[in-house]
TrEMBL record:
One GO-annotated biological process of the protein: mitochondrion organization
Name the record gives this protein: Metaxin-1
Family: Belongs to the metaxin family.
Annotated source species: Zophobas morio
Main location: mitochondrion
Record field: transmembrane: 262-283
Stored Gene3D superfamilies: 1.20.1050.10
Origin superkingdom: Eukaryota
Amino acid sequence: MATTSTLHIIDGDYGLVSFDVGCIESIFYARLKQIPLEIKFQNNLKSCALYNAPSWQSGDSTVEKFPNIMMQWKKTHGNLDEGLNPKEASETLALINLVTMKLFPVIEFLYWVDQRNSEEFTNRWFMKALPFPFNYSYTKRKRAEALQLVETLYPVDTDLDVVKDFITKTATQCLSTISTRLGKSKFFYGDNPQILDVVVYAHIAPLVKLPFPANDIPSLLSMWPNLTEFVKRIDAKYFSDVKREVKYLAVETTLRQNDDEVSYAAIFILVVSATSLVVGFAVKRGFLKLPSMF
């Protein structure tokens, strides 16, 4: 009987198995290779203090980051791409490099650098999903890493609007390339997902599923419907158990709607009160005469 190991990951939401790209890759790969795993979410202080996400724990050893985890799984469970010929293997490597080099910075920008997304969505979600005080340190660290990545890629440009234009062009070129390569096929190589499918799905699924307030970059996917269908196809076959309802911000959204209703009522009361005071003052000073009722 195979020994069950543990995969430590960031939780997911909105039908996404995890908010972290590396965690999505790890879970998807494990499901394809049918690796026996115990999934543990980073929802307590002990897990957050001892492990980064994703981390694979087997016995006394712990391996971090998906590329390293995948190398270990190749040794114990075989290569997911063993059926590819040399040309397909070479193409796979090139496309994986394209996606990780071009789309990962896009996701980091959307999550942490775009001010509206960060303040109204991403930061609020992680503050709810992760335990205190780790939620503060995690969001601060991730934003700093994302800003450092953007500064490294675009050292000359300090205007984030200009950087966003470059990011958008980069995303457009990358999405167009992988959409053309996928074409009308179910997956990139035959009827079963390979490592390229894993990497592409992990980078595109957040763009498809997450409700970013500033969604001009994710909305680019409407130009390539086969990529959206690609995500839906994988969801139906490999992630049908992932719940679609909102976990962490649903209650807050309801409360905010209630607050809006209260605010409208308060504004109405204030307007009526202010009007009454003005009319009363005008009548008292003789500026306004009300008609006698008798």
